[in-house]
Each structure stands twice: as C-alpha cells, then as structure tokens.
Amino acid sequence: MLFTRVLTKSNVQLANVLKYSSFTGRSSVRLIKSGTLSQAVRSAVTVAAENAGTITTTQTKWVGRWLLGCAGMCFGAVVLGGVTRLTESGLSMVDWRLYGERPPISRIDWEEEFEKYKKFPEFQMKNSSMTLEEFKFIWMMEYVHRMWGRAIGLFFLVPAAVFWKKGLFNSAMKKRVLAFGGLLGCQGLLGWYMVRSGLEHERFQGPSDVPRVSQYRLASHLGSAFILYSLFLWSALGHLLPAEAPQKVTKGMLQLRRYALGVKGFMFLTVISGAFVAGLDAGLVYNSFPKMADRWIPEDILAFSPTIRNFTENPTTVQFDHRIMGTTTLALFTGLWLMAMRTRNMPRRVYTAANAAAGMAWMQVGLGIATLLNYVPVPLAAMHQSGSLVLLSLSIWLTHEMKLIKLIKK
C-alpha cells in the first residue's frame, strides 16, 4: 500500500493500525486527527484514503448492515433453539433433508408423520400417551427452528454473492466470507448430528434412561453458534462502528484490554458449561440457592467413576460447576468495571460498554437464580439463555472499542 513507502522504522506499529482501517471516511479522518501519527504517516494516510478505490462509505455501511443482520439471525436461531429444547420439541422431526421439507397439510399427512415419531425412543419411553394435537405443537417448533437456520443461509449467501461480484470485499473480507459460509454449513450438519443422538435406540436401554440428545453434541452445537454469532458481530462493528484510537496509550489501558479479553474468554466457557446443564436437565436436580439442599457441596457431586465423568455426565456436578463459573463471571465483570472506571483518557465508548456489560452481568446472574428457584420455566430459561448472548455481545463491543490500544502501544 502507498502509505508503507513513507513509514520510518519507528512507525512500524502505526502501519498495523492502518492495516485495520478501511479508509472509507471516518476511520482515516479519525487517524489523521488523532495526533498519534507522525506528519509523514498522516500525509500517507491522507493519500491512501483518497486513493482507496471505488468502495464508498455508504457501500461499506451496507456490508456492515448485512453482517449485523446475519448476527441478528444467529441470535434468533439460538433463542429458537433454546425454546425448542425447553419445550422438548427437538426430536419430533425424525428425518432430515437439505431442502423440500414442508409441514404436513392434511390430517393423513400429520398421522403419517406421527407414526414415524412413534418408532423412536422419545415416544416409546416418555411420550407414549401423547395425542396428535400435542405432537403437532412440538413438530412445528422444530420445523420453525430448522427453517430459520436455512433462512440464515439465504440471508448470508445472496448478499455475499452480490457484494463479492460488485467488488465490495477486500482480500481479508473475502477470506472471512468463505469462513462464514463454511461455519454455517458445519452448523447445520452439526445440528442434525446432535438430533440423531436422541434417535439412536442403542443409547437408551435401561428403564431409567431419558431419551435426549447427547450433551456433548448439544454443547458443540451451541458453542459453534456462539462463535459464528461473535464473528459476524465483530466484523459488523468493524464496518459500522470503527474503534477510536486514544490520544496516548498507557500501561493501565493495556492491562484493561488484556483483562477484558480474559473475561470474555471465561464468559464463553461459562456458556459452554450452561449447555451441559441444559443437555442433562441439571437445572432440575437442586432448586435452591445459594446452597444445594442445605449443603454448600452436595454429597453426590463425585458419585460417578471415573471421577472425570462427573464434570460432563453427573447433573449435580454440572450444576455445581455452572453455579461457580456464573458467580466467578459476575465477579470478573464487576472487577472489569471497577478497573475501567479507574483508567483515564480512554475513548468514551469504552466506558459506555463497560457500564453496560457490568449491568448485564448482574442481570444475567439474577435471571439464572430465578430460573433455578422456579424449576426452569420456559420463559425464564429462554431469557437466561438470551441474556448470555447479550452479555457476550457487550463483551465483544467492549473489546472491539479497545482493539487499537494494542496496535499503537509502541
């Protein structure tokens, strides 16, 4: 690029800042006015901004809106998936087709679909008294969830093809788009792989077995959905809300950024632990807080052998772990907020994001406790799962606003 020809050795780090800028209006102007660039670099940025090609600010915003829409569609899919699981609807559709799936129309069609369902463990071991009308409800819940997933594919692919053809993607964005497409395809296949685990007769042989999907596959499916959502949101923010560079980078800013990244990572692990709680219906084993049946540590926390199995297969241990991780996440976000308030001269939006994330962390823990104490009602449980996505979104926004701190530290 043109600006690299005029960079001195002392400005190598500043070149990295420019690599992350699209030179589509606000980003380049903000860099030029920030005061952190040498005169030579500012001149180069100005020239590069004027010769950045035909991609306008308006076109960049359209790409950003599309990415934000994809993130919103993923958010909706996670919420729908949670409600589908909570209403025990996920195993109602016992086959999978890439296209051509449509809801039954006549009573005969519904009865044929119901007969298929009767051949599998969930009906035989749990829902043998289910009526056709009850079956219609759970079937439609799963159908809507699947169709929403396919709608995400269309919402992604059609604009991506148009934008690619019109040259609105640079080389880095093209790689991201290909990665997004691959992740979307894998997510659909992983969803069916998860459902299949609940349809396998050999997994449910004992009288005490409860037909449900594998908690490992459920955690993988939910975790990949969160990753896909995070990538869409991060890319959208880069197009619609470029991060502001501080006037001067301090040691406190660098420490805050590293701490925020760590908190975001731990929060993601807490989400995965929640997926195991959902997969094992572990929210129903101890419905008191803060103690579990008048004990801080329940007697059956390590009842399985070998011991390692307890952390993914023992509902008591899984719930206990999620409680500890949830409260630890709350403490980490509270510490993050206190640290941000003590760090001066950061971009204004960093403080706004820190305030929002800390407030959402407290709300999320409150939702989790209320869900537990009320024996996991569908509305509260769905709000708790959605809250985890909101908290993740705010964490992504916070770290996005601080991403230039590292880039210009030298």
TrEMBL record:
GO terms for cellular component: mitochondrial inner membrane. Keywords: Heme biosynthesis, Iron, Membrane, Metal-binding, Oxidoreductase, Transmembrane, Transmembrane helix. The chain crosses the membrane at residues 66-86, 147-165, 177-195, 218-241, 261-286, 324-341, 353-376, 382-400. It is found in: Membrane. It comes from the Eukaryota. Pathway: Porphyrin-containing compound metabolism; heme A biosynthesis; heme A from heme O: step 1/1. This is Cytochrome c oxidase assembly protein COX15 homolog. It comes from Artemia franciscana.
